[in-house]
TrEMBL record:
<feature type="binding site">
    <location>
        <begin position="447"/>
        <end position="449"/>
    </location>
    <ligand>
        <name>L-methionine</name>
    </ligand>
</feature>
<feature type="binding site">
    <location>
        <begin position="17"/>
        <end position="20"/>
    </location>
    <ligand>
        <name>5-methyltetrahydropteroyltri-L-glutamate</name>
    </ligand>
</feature>
<feature type="binding site">
    <location>
        <position position="500"/>
    </location>
    <ligand>
        <name>L-homocysteine</name>
    </ligand>
</feature>
<keyword id="KW-0028">Amino-acid biosynthesis</keyword>
<dbReference type="InterPro" id="IPR038071">
    <property type="entry name" value="UROD/MetE-like_sf"/>
</dbReference>
<feature type="binding site">
    <location>
        <position position="742"/>
    </location>
    <ligand>
        <name>Zn(2+)</name>
    </ligand>
</feature>
<protein>
    <recommendedName>
        <fullName>5-methyltetrahydropteroyltriglutamate--homocysteine methyltransferase</fullName>
        <ecNumber>2.1.1.14</ecNumber>
    </recommendedName>
</protein>
<dbReference type="GO" id="GO:0003871">
    <property type="term" value="F:5-methyltetrahydropteroyltriglutamate-homocysteine S-methyltransferase activity"/>
</dbReference>
<feature type="binding site">
    <location>
        <position position="657"/>
    </location>
    <ligand>
        <name>Zn(2+)</name>
    </ligand>
</feature>
<keyword id="KW-0479">Metal-binding</keyword>
<dbReference type="GO" id="GO:0009086">
    <property type="term" value="P:methionine biosynthetic process"/>
</dbReference>
<feature type="binding site">
    <location>
        <position position="657"/>
    </location>
    <ligand>
        <name>Zn(2+) 1</name>
    </ligand>
</feature>
<feature type="binding site">
    <location>
        <position position="742"/>
    </location>
    <ligand>
        <name>Zn(2+) 1</name>
    </ligand>
</feature>
<feature type="binding site">
    <location>
        <position position="681"/>
    </location>
    <ligand>
        <name>Zn(2+)</name>
    </ligand>
</feature>
<feature type="binding site">
    <location>
        <position position="659"/>
    </location>
    <ligand>
        <name>Zn(2+)</name>
    </ligand>
</feature>
<feature type="binding site">
    <location>
        <position position="659"/>
    </location>
    <ligand>
        <name>Zn(2+) 1</name>
    </ligand>
</feature>
<dbReference type="InterPro" id="IPR002629">
    <property type="entry name" value="Met_Synth_C/arc"/>
</dbReference>
Length: 774
């Protein structure tokens, strides 16, 4: 057996985070556009050459982005908000990055030729890419939105690879998915209505690609795994009929991924495309539907290697699984591919020289997944040793005593009803908490973290390398914590945080202190822009050997009379921001983590913490893509929050935080979590996310974020006051807290200080208009 191997996309960031450092150098004005673009060009070339060396037959191009592929497409088709001042022609870097990050009001590169950067503009909204931890920039489209080809980015990438002697398959996000994910700037307007105006741009891109020698193009339509309306299904039919007529000899590989296409599969199979990619990791049953219904001549791309997790594939099982498929369709009509782009996994396991040897044999990162693809392409006869090695690793993991802890399993079995709810209803808890805390109307606080300055990172690195002692490192951290407490007191914040200077990451910090977790040194994955994360690996049963945060909270609280929040990361967020074991249900892993966090919550309360924040920033991103599957997920996600939060007295105020989530559809579940205070992102959407609370009378307290921490912009008092005025139209004064929309770890102090001073001033203005707390 010999089947063509295809890759759908490769990580953009560079094995040593070259893109991050090039971007941040450019943004800081330390390097110019040439240096940035040269770095990007080298990364693309390295990726193409690596895939060629690994024996991948079909290599993607245009999978690279300086920031985000959805933003790239918006810029390419001229979907640029009027505030950015763009008129026509190629979109310069400053405009591109202003759409991504906002503009502070001045361009540091004077050669761009666009004076509009001096105005200062907010960034586009940002939200999660389907149910991954990757964020995309949400395009803004109006009813009369014009589209025009500003530059043919897929063509440029194809020609760049061609110049290196590598024939690629260009990748482009499909027009229906692009329109579906975009935001309408006008009420009652469905962005899919713009398809007729967008298709000519795609037709021109395709025609130019074909003229340059491209024979295939990969069009990503991950919307195929969503619940689609009749209009959206009709849009898919219209799109691929039109493109097929305009450029009939450019073959389209239509890619649907992140799940089972389900009731959209018949639609996909009727489209006039040459190939169809199916995610057989998340939708394994699709293979039988494809065998029964695939039309003659359709090339099937089988997504058999997990593009979203890091476990080594069972190559022998996969080969046995596809034997009947090969017998039915023949080798020429099949391609073997990852389930989705490899964007979502780290680049190279070989960089992890310090990782436990046994655990390392269980893993495969992007580079190793290319090897797995090559082995599958050669078949069982051509790769006997590789298949046997994979089988040994699978067996080793299944039998390892490091994976299974009977004590954890016994504790899961002891969960009872009393652990799944607070002792009293919110109204009673609120009265007790108000009497104890004596907070003013519109209390001010932050989400938890303060800037991780170069000094903080340098000190942490020095301690990790043994260059400074543990005592010296602790002295440094105590100094940073005390400075943060004193400054918060000075500007008048009502509820303080200790700043989290001792924490490397809101998930990693806890995972390093829990059993069942492993960590890497170089396994970076892009979250958005230059923000990369190293997700922990949950390989075994989870428990908490000892307290994790109590001593740092106790020290911070000793410095002030004001309340200091205990700061924890919730179980669902730890789960969703980790690479999770695949031999146990996600629900059961979440329950294990929840019980470990429950122990920490109880210990914080015993130490005297009056407020404990359990962040569930990623709760919504784990929501299944099909509504029919939501209830099961939300039930165990809410149960997990209850398990970790309900072991405290009524007087202990439980906070939680959620990032970049559309709440309208899950408001019942958020209410069921029964946190005393929830803080959420609302600044980029100008409080639109609070519309969920208009029809649903949410009883608990809410802190809608009043400024966007993902942008370097410093909003003024008037801007924050306007947002809070919108919030007051949706919520009672007695419910409102005032806070940023997320933690401040990634910002600089020179941005944070004026922003928080303005935030406190906005709160005081609101208090002057209301003299009693509801």
């Amino acid at each position: 057996m010999s089947i063509k191997t295809a890759n759908l996309g490769f990580p953009r960031i560079g094995s040593h985070r070259e893109l991050k450092f090039a971007l941040e150098s450019y943004w800081a004005g330390k390097s110019d556009a040439t240096a940035l673009l040269d770095t990007a060009k080298k990364l693309r070339a390295d990726n193409w050459k690596l895939q060629q060396q690994k024996g991948i037959a079909i290599i993607p191009s245009n999978d690279f982005s300086l920031y985000d592929h959805v933003l790239d497409l918006a810029a390419m088709v001229g979907a640029i908000p009027a505030a950015h001042g763009w008129k026509s022609g190629p979109v310069d870097l400053d405009t591109y990055f202003a759409m991504a990050r906002g503009s502070t009001g001045a361009s540091h590169h004077g050669d761009c030729g666009h004076a509009h950067h001096g105005h200062g503009v907010p960034a586009l909204e940002m939200t999660k890419w389907f149910d991954t931890n990757y964020h995309y920039m949400v395009p803004e489209l109006r009813r009369d939105q014009p589209f025009t080809l500003t530059a043919n980015k897929p063509l440029e990438a194809f020609l760049e690879a061609k110049a290196l002697g590598i024939h690629t398959r260009p990748v482009i996000l499909g027009p229906v998915t692009f329109l579906k994910l975009a935001k309408s700037t006008e009420a009652g307007f469905d962005t899919v209505e713009l398809l007729d105006w967008l298709l000519p741009v795609y037709a021109r891109v395709f025609a130019e690609l074909r003229a340059a020698g491209a024979d295939w193009v990969q069009v990503d339509e991950p919307c195929l795994v969503l619940d689609l309306s009749d209009r959206e299904r009709a849009a898919l039919s219209q799109t691929y009929r039109a493109l097929g007529e305009v450029v009939p000899d450019l073959k389209i590989m239509l890619a649907g991924y992140f799940g089972d296409m389900g009731d959209n599969l018949p639609v996909a199979l009727q489209l006039p495309v040459a190939g169809l990619h199916a995610d057989l990791v998340r939708g394994p049953l699709q293979i039988e539907a494809l065998r029964k219904k695939a039309p003659d001549g359709l090339v099937l791309s089988l997504g058999l290697i997990d593009g979203r997790n890091i476990w080594r594939a069972d190559l022998d099982a996969i080969l046995k699984r596809i034997v009947p498929v090969v017998a039915q369709f023949g080798e020429d009509r099949l391609q073997i591919a990852p389930s989705c782009s490899l964007l979502h996994v780290p680049i190279d396991l070989d960089l992890e020289t310090g990782l436990d040897g046994e655990l390392k044999t269980w893993l495969a990162f992007a580079t190793q997944k290319l090897d797995e693809l090559a082995v599958l392409g050669r078949g069982s006869i051509g790769a006997v040793e590789e298949i046997a090695a994979a089988s040994r690793a699978i067996a080793s993991r299944a039998a390892s005593a490091r994976v299974h802890d009977p004590r954890v399993q016994d504790r899961i079995g002891s969960i009872d009803a009393a652990m799944k709810g607070r002792k009293s209803a919110f109204a009673r808890r609120k009265a007790i908490q108000d009497d104890k805390l004596q907070l003013p109307l519109f209390p001010t606080t932050t989400i938890g973290s303060f800037p991780q300055t170069p000094e903080v990172r340098k000190s942490r690195a020095a301690y990790a390398k043994g260059a400074i002692s543990g005592a010296d490192y602790e002295t440094f951290l105590r100094g940073e914590t005390e400075s943060a407490i004193r400054w918060q007191e000075a500007i008048g914040l009502d509820v303080l945080v200790h700043g989290e200077f001792e924490r490397n990451d809101m998930v990693q910090y806890f995972g390093e202190q829990l059993s069942g977790f492993a960590f890497t040194a170089h396994a970076w994955v892009q979250s958005y822009g230059s923000r990369y994360v190293r997700p922990p690996i949950i390989f075994g049963d989870v428990s908490r050997p000892k307290p994790m945060t109590v001593e740092w909270w106790r020290y911070a609280q000793s410095l002030t009379e004001k309340p200091v929040k205990g700061m924890l990361t919730g179980p669902v967020t730890i789960l969703n921001w980790s690479f999770v074991r695949d031999d146990l249900s996600r629900a059961d892993v979440s329950r294990q983590i929840a019980l470990a966090i429950r122990d920490e919550v109880i210990d914080l309360e015993k130490a005297g913490a009056a407020m404990i924040q359990i962040d569930e920033a990623a709760l919504r991103e784990g929501l299944p893509l099909r509504k029919a599957d939501w209830k099961v997920y939300l039930d165990w996600a809410v149960e997990s929050f209850h398990l970790c939060s309900t072991g405290v007295a009524d007087e202990t105020q439980i906070h939680t935080h959620m990032c970049y989530s559309e709440f309208n559809q899950i408001i019942d579940a958020i209410a069921a979590m029964d946190a005393d205070v929830i803080s959420i992102e609302t600044s980029r959407s100008k409080m639109e996310l609070l519309d969920a609370f208009l029809s649903y009378k949410y009883p608990n307290e809410i802190g809608p974020g009043v400024y966007d921490i993902h942008s370097p912009r410093v909003p003024d008092v008037e801007e924050m006051t306007e947002l809070l005025t919108l919030a007051r139209e949706r919520l009672a004064d007695g419910q409102l807290w005032i806070n940023p929309d997320c933690g401040l770890k990634t910002r600089k102090w020179e941005e944070v200080r004026p922003a928080l001073v303005n935030m406190v001033s906005a709160a005081r203005l609101l208090r002057s208009a209301a003299t009693t707390r509801a």
